[in-house]
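REVIEWER CHECKLIST
Item 1: Sequence provided? yes
Item 2: Single chain? yes
Item 3: Sequence as submitted:
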Amino acid sequence: MVVLLACWFPALLNPAHAQTFTALESMQIHANRATSSLLLYRGEGFQKAHLARMENDLKSLADTVDSFPGARNDLHQLHQILQTTLREGASFGREEDDMPWGWPLQMSKALRDFLTAVRSQQGADVRAELPAKVEYLTVQYLSRAYVGSFETAREQPDTYLGQDERRLVPSIDEQLAALDGKSNAAIAKLKTRWEFLKVALEDMNSGNNSFNTASGRAFAPIMVDRHARSLSNQWMALAPD
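Item 4: Structure as written out by the authors:
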């Protein structure tokens, strides 16, 4: 098990890089989660619990960025833009016309730009991005359910930031297939949750501009959000036996 996880998590065997690895992973996850919380807040009737969750996500993100010794100036600047954009989105009124038509694109760009800056930091390990991929797909799903399409980074087709479920679901499948679920109950539980979650994500129908699911079933954003958070938490909790 140690050899297996070392393949995916080289930082775990190198204490000098462990802090960098954890911070870069956490930044991507918390940025996506804060965006999902904002979408839930607007999409589910402006419930205070969702707004409070967004603020908690933003605090977790800010704490990670502020404590990361290798953060470049552009990372701090793009973090501020993302934080401001999400809080602006929470401030718009309840009516559809209260949100400027171009704001969802601004939200997409703010998230993409920040995640791009995180990934460009020295020491980023693209092999360890499974939880970020799951959370990024969740943002896309909630965006289609509540405000319309999410604009991915078309200039980055070879990174998860430029991909939707048509490439990310197979990519996540491949990463999970490399883990031996038969010898570890935690991994088996992780893979079981993913099999349930990916049914909804594959139904997102990103290639269609009608904003209907491929199956015709209703979107299930609360369910997808809940299971995505649980899955990424489970993944991050994995440690060598």
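Item 5: Key structural point noted by reviewer: The mean pLDDT is 87.
Item 6: Recommendation: ____
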